[in-house]
Amino acid sequence: MSEIAVKRLDQDAGDAPDGEAAATGPTLVHRAITLIAASGVFWAVFQIFPFQSAVPATGVYVALGAVAALGVAVTSMAAKDVRTLNRANHILVATAAFGIICYAVGIIVSGISYGTDEEIFVQWSAHLLGQGKNPYGADLTPAFHHYAMSSQFYTKLLDGTYTHGLDYPAVPVLLSWAGNSVLHDYHTVAFVCSGALVAALLVAYKLLPRDYRGVATIICVGYPILMDHARGGIVGIIMLPFLMVAVAGWERIGRGGRLDRRAWIAAVCFGFALSVQQLSWMLAPFFVTAIFLVRWPELGAKAALRVTALFSVISVATMLVINSPFIIWNPGSWLAGVTEPLRQKAIAEGEGLVDIPISLHFGTGDLGMYSLGGAAVYAGFFVIFVLYFDKFRPAWVVAPAMALVFQGRPLIEYFAIPALVWAVVLLTADKDQEDSPRPWPLLAARRRLWISGAALLPATGLWVLGLTSPQPLSLKIVKVATNGPLNQIDQITVQVKNKTGDAINPHFMMTNGYSTSFWNEVSGPEKVPAHGSAEFVISTPGMGSSPGVGGDFTLAAVSDVPASVSYAPKTAIARYSTSFLDDLGRKYAAGDTAVVDVQLRDRHSRPSKTKGVQVMLNQVDFSASGITGSNLSINGGPAGNPAIALTDSEGVAHFLVKKGNDNPTGLVHLQAWIRQSGSIPTYGYSAFLTQQWP
Q: What is the per-residue DSSP string for 206-244?
């Protein structure tokens, strides 16, 4: 790592002899960042705590990690010299690294299911590679069943299907293929990503200035999102250590008109980053342009272009060499795979401006405008970056993210993962680098402003077109069917009206920010005719895709022609739910009478003082031999039968329970629910109350 170290903001103080460093008091920034980093480690300790049963060794980390974090916190407040605080930071980063490892091991060994198709596709691709098969171009659908991933996490397409191919460059597959020899195809990608996060933590710690080293711990461990993404197999994590080495001290690249050893290492590492995920591709034009514009005043345009081109050639060549086995194997399949995200018609969801129509449920008739708008924003910000390079020089690493905010699928990982890279770029900036002159000195300020506005005009227009394009379908829910005690909706009847002049093939799902799997069409036409109507009966593909009876839900219909999403009005089925006032299971003697009170609650779980609502209480015996009836008498009724009571003015229904005959009873589970007339005769099922009878 010494070969890739860069000059730090405080290099003189940091490299002082031990005696001199000991006499230098820590800065307030150094103390504060160390303290915040120590506080962040408590999140890892808290998250690892539940895994002590599955992996007992994690309990040791919980104990020692808490002690270490507290010790570093005390040191950050009380240290009298820099050397002591530096040592505390060394302990803290080691604690954070072991925390990432323990979290990954604990959560995976305890039996977590696969959570993203990104993880299982890369892992299945590594599995195929181990069998001598080319993963690019292969149908990866068997991965869904092999790894038993819930269908609600599939990436859904507008045509009603799901993604089923490898669409990442080669590094994640190659690393997972190597890891399979040790991990035997069990959460290999998650372990690889967690290892990459540890590497990213240590690399960032080495690269960052002394006073700011705690930033690495804050971002990698103090923020839960990176650890969660790593154990979920989000391969962008693998890109981090390579990308940080590439961009650290980037303003020195090409200084003097040549690439030194540090610059060659940066170029090769950037090539590795390009071979991990396409997010680095978006950074590439900004990165190389920034290098050119920094070197231009020093070397002149021709020499600056030459050194920038050499850096680019090394990076691209590195990427091609890494991917060469698959390129040679089948160049068409490889190219189609790695460019698939650019062509993929995925449904709109994520954390960006597309959330406005999603959250307000007014839909859009042309999702393509969001994709085009994102590309236009990217181009517009690139123009602005070049025109105002004297002001925006350090921001080149963040600017591409603005384009992702505007496009139709702005997943949070696109912004959260590069955050550590942003910090490295900011904090390893060369303080001796002269301020960048205006790259276009003859361009008047007003003219630059006009050009910048014109550059963003297409993006604004495209986004407004997407936002104002009306949804093509009108949806109205006319009937629902529930699954009773599971408190979920199983089937929906929906009337669909087509407001356009073309027939549309809708595909239905529930949405609440993120969308469920597509619901099955039990009945209904293949397409809704132009300016016509149709009725569809749809059923849930699984419990994970079924909305609860007690909450709001929104039905959405997507289509690929036109690329659109339409929403039904937000729907609420149930007004109340039930719960037991005393939910502690108790033991009773044969002649006892148990008083069971059931509280009516509103949709926000607050007690509802509604009188006269019918509440039913039933009994069941769960045993190893199956589900059977019990023999309790409720409100004086026959043994084994349910009973009905009306709520009083406090919204409470009262039941008296005792043995109905002399037969043995054992453990009995009581459950309450609301009974009414209408299309949903029962709903609002309570949790079970367990009682022990002789």
A: HHS-GGGTHHHHIIIIISHHHHHHHHTT-THHHHHHHHH
Rounded distance between C-alpha atoms, residue 316 and residue 310, angstroms: 10
Beta-bridged to residue 618, according to DSSP, are: 671
Give the integer Cα–Cα distance in Å for 296 and 291. Answer: 9
Contact between 34 and 212 under an 8 Å Cβ cutoff? The reply is no
Q: What pLDDT, in 10s, does the model give residues 620-644?
A: 887 777 777 789 999 999 999 999 9
For the chain, the farthest-separated pair of C-alpha atoms sits apart, in whole angstroms, at 101
For the cut 90, the answer to whether the pLDDT of residue 355 exceeds it is no
Question: Cα-flanking dihedrals φ and ψ of residue 410, to 5°?
Answer: -85, 75
pTM: 0.87
- The sign of the torsion formed by the CA atoms of 84, 86, 92, 94 equals negative
Q: How, if at all, do strands 689-693 and 666-675 pair?
A: antiparallel
Give CA–CA dist 40/219, Å, rounded: 9
377: enclosing H helix or E strand? helix 368-387
Q: In the structure encoding, which two tokens stand for residue 470, read together?
A: 């009306």
Contact between residue 563 and residue 345 where contact means Cβ atoms under 8 Å apart:
yes
Distance CA 652, CA 373 (A): 56
Query: What is the reported pLDDT for 442?
Result: 52
Lowest model confidence (mean pLDDT) among 211-220, 351-360, 485-494, 501-510: 351-360
432 pLDDT band, cuts 50/70/90, is low
Find out whether the peptide bond into 562 is cis, omega within 30 degrees of 0: yes
CA dist., res. 227 & res. 219, Å (int):
10
Can you tell me the distance from the alpha carbon of 150 to that of 115, in angstroms, rounded to the nearest whole number?
7
Angle (nearest 5°) at CA 307 between 303 and 313: 140
Residue 16 pLDDT greater than 70, yes or no:
no
Q: What angle, 0 to 180 degrees and rounded to 10, lies between the N-to-C axes of helices 224-231 and 28-48?
A: 40
Mean pLDDT value of segment 91-117: 89
pLDDT, tens digit (0-9, with 9 covering 90-100), for 25-70:
899 999 999 999 999 999 899 989 988 888 898 999 999 999 999 9
